[in-house]
Design a protein that fits this description.
heterodimer; A: 244 residues; alpha/beta; Rossmann fold; 6-stranded mixed sheet; 4-stranded antiparallel sheet; 33% helix; B: 424 residues; alpha+beta; 2 domains; 6-stranded mixed beta barrel; two-stranded antiparallel ribbon; 17 helices; 20% strand; elongated
Chain lengths: 244, 424
């Protein structure tokens, strides 16, 4: 599975996602047309039920559209089999969830190593990649700790390391700061901004957290499944010196 | 990835301990039951073996053809040479020559006239030689009711019932009136050394047991015997080994076309016995199947609980691109690993008591002192080649089936819901 370089990273065309109901159907996404280029730091914002997570699911190849198309890294999501979708996720997409969802019986190192095991990467390369990822999130000294020995912020940083260890082209983060206090949220976001800058990793958030929204360079506002605004903003003052 | 899974199993006892204990217990009980049933089967067939069939039996082809109607006219000749060959070629068996004979036993009075007379079914066995295998096989010492075992030529034992019928006891003189192997009349005098009761009705009605040399002399059967019985010294029947010994023996003697030439029959190939042994085999299979079924249900439930406990982990693994099939196979591999280790441990744990029961036995005689049942009072197990693998059937099958059924939830899980499900 290769990544074509010419086309945009993500392109949706007249994307519709509807769920059958007893009477009629519930439209979660209504003719969404969006394009994301490599290296973007963008967010889907809006109230609950606006379609943020549904769009993230489709872009992450966890779900398929009802109508229209979603092209991610050159792959038409609506045509992928389960195995092909899993292959796309394993190679090119990293996920960060609302809670860290680390494997409790494994060490920090082993948790971060897991996506590379799925990829079948040789052990020597794996070890180096995990060390690099832990250094990026400044947790190199906690490699042998268990998740239970970490704070909430540290655990979420391990989850970020796990998402970016395979150097994915795209990281999808669903409310990544929802369970964190302001200070930890700031650190997490700084980490993600730095990764976006250093690795050119595209970050796409689903959030209604103002702390996150303030750091986004592009904000797509959804309401009732439709895009109601798509705006680009400057980086926040706290991240001065950052250049996209 | 296998190391990764193994680490998880090792570090998370709740993931592995319950299935491991279930499999270990199931494998252990299965192995113990199999060895116990094999021992019971051997013990029950021992009654037939010690009086009639041996574990293997060498007879003439003519006698084999005649079956129950065979007489001493069809006996084996050249027995000493045959025995030498058998002791050399099948040293794991103890070989005992025997002659069965029928006739009348005549008890004279002081004037030498007949005082009492009765038909007897006799058995000529090696009695006098101290290390004769038939002494322990027939358990003569414990079967003697009055008197003692013969120690010199011309001494014989008769059943207690017969002795009472004839109104004689140890020290009495008796004459056996029978026929030689050539059909002529034969007579021989004996001194009754003792009376016996085997506890087997057919043997206790009118039996006479005498030394085979005396019977050979009386019936003109020099260097001849009706049959040569082979016994495994520990009394446990080894079906495969016995049949293999018989096949080898018969193959070696296949070129000898003489109808009085020897042929060997394994006990398990005799009518009636084969059905009994097959029945115990089927019971063993039934027990293994029942254990596999019960353990599958237990492990299915354990698998369901485990899948629920690991719902988050499985969700993350799916989200990170682990294919459902691969995840399902990984869970199967985990459970088979537990099944394998549990089966090995369960089998090893069972082999200890099984070996003890096989070699030492459990004597329940003190519980049966006043019982009228004539059964062996030492319960023995028997370790067979199947013992080493039978525990793996429920161990691996149950874990495999249990996980296969409980793991179906992975296929039914909607990946579209992962984001929501992982927002705990």
């Amino acid at each position: 599975m290769t990544t074509p370089s010419e086309s945009p990273l993500i392109r949706t065309r007249d994307l519709v996602k509807a769920y059958p109901m007893e009477q009629g159907r519930l439209v979660a996404l209504n003719r969404v047309n969006l394009t994301f280029e490599k290296g973007e730091f963008a967010g889907l914002v809006g109230p609950s039920g606006s379609g943020k997570t549904t769009l993230l699911n489709i872009v992450g190849s966890l779900d398929q559209p009802t109508e229209g198309s979603a092209e991610v890294l050159g792959h038409r999501i609506e045509t992928l089999s389960h195995a092909e979708a899993a292959e796309l996720r394993s190679r090119h997409i990293g996920f960060i969830f609302q809670t860290h969802n680390l494997f409790p019986v494994y060490t920090v190192f082993e948790n971060v190593e897991f996506p590379l095991l799925v990829l079948g990467m040789p052990a020597a390369l794996r070890t180096q990649a995990v060390r690099d990822a832990l250094d990026w999130v400044k947790l190199g000294d906690r490699a042998n700790s268990k998740p239970a020995q970490l704070s909430g912020g540290q655990s979420q940083r391990v989850a970020i390391a796990r998402a970016i260890v395979k150097r994915p082209a795209l990281v999808l983060a669903d409310e990544p700061t929802a369970n964190l206090d302001a200070e930890n949220s700031r650190r997490i976001l700084e980490t993600m901004v730095q990764l976006n800058r250093d690795l050119q990793t595209t970050f796409l958030f689903a959030t209604h957290d103002d702390k996150v929204i303030r750091h986004l360079r592009r904000t797509i506002r959804l309401n009732d499944g439709s895009v109601v605004a798509d705006t680009s903003t400057e980086p926040t003052p706290q991240l001065a010196g950052y250049r996209p | 990835m296998i190391r990764f899974l193994a680490k998880g199993l090792w570090r998370d006892p709740t993931r592995s301990l319950f299935p491991f204990l279930t499999v270990t217990t199931g494998a252990m009980v299965t192995v113990l039951m199999q060895t116990y049933l094999a021992g019971i089967s051997s013990n029950l067939s021992w009654s037939s073996a010690r009086f009639s069939s041996g574990h293997v039996k060498v007879i003439s082809r003519a006698a084999a053809k005649a079956g129950d109607r065979a007489s001493n006219e069809l006996a084996l000749a050249g027995v000493n040479q045959l025995l030498e060959g058998l002791r050399r070629d099948a040293p794991d068996l103890a070989w005992a020559p025997r002659i069965r004979f029928g006739g009348l036993i005549d008890v004279p009075d002081d004037q030498g006239l007949t005082k009492a007379q009765a038909p007897v079914a006799g058995l000529g066995v090696e009695l006098i030689r101290a290390d004769a295998p038939d002494r322990p096989v027939l358990a003569l010492e414990s079967a003697i009711v009055r008197g003692r075992a013969p120690v010199a030529p011309g001494e014989a034992l008769i059943s207690e019932d017969l002795a009472r019928h004839l109104n004689i006891g140890p020290g009495a003189k008796a004459t056996l009136i029978g026929s030689t192997m050539h059909g002529a009349m034969a007579t021989a005098n004996f001194t009754i050394a003792g009376t016996l009761r085997f506890g087997v009705r057919a043997m206790d009605r009118g039996t006479m047991v005498a030394d085979i040399r005396d019977i050979q002399r009386a019936l003109e059967m020099d260097d001849a015997a009706g049959e040569l019985l082979g016994f495994y010294p520990d009394t446990l029947y080894r079906r495969a080994a016995a049949e293999s010994t018989a096949d080898s023996f018969n193959a070696r003697h296949a070129r000898d076309a003489d109808e009085f030439g020897p042929t060997m029959v394994a006990m398990s190939r005799l009518p009636g016995i084969v059905e009994f042994l097959d029945l115990t085999d089927r019971v063993s299979v039934g027990i293994v199947a029942a254990f596999t079924f019960v353990m599958s249900i237990v492990l299915w439930n354990a698998g369901l609980i485990g899948t629920l406990r690991r719902y988050g982990e499985i969700g993350v693994r799916l989200a990170f691109g682990e294919d459902k099939g691969r995840l399902y196979r990984a869970m199967l591999l985990e459970s088979l690993l537990i099944g394998l280790v549990g089966s090995v441990v369960g089998t090893l744990l069972a082999l200890g008591p099984a070996y003890w029961l096989q070699s030492r036995g459990w004597d329940i005689g003190y519980m049966m002192q006043n019982a009228s049942l004539m059964i062996q009072t030492v319960i023995r197990a028997q370790i067979t080649p199947a013992t080493f693998v039978i525990g793996f059937l429920p161990g691996l099958l149950a874990t495999g089936i249990g996980t296969a059924v409980s793991g179906r939830g992975i296929y039914n899980r909607q990946t579209a819901s992962l984001m929501k499900e992982l927002e705990v």
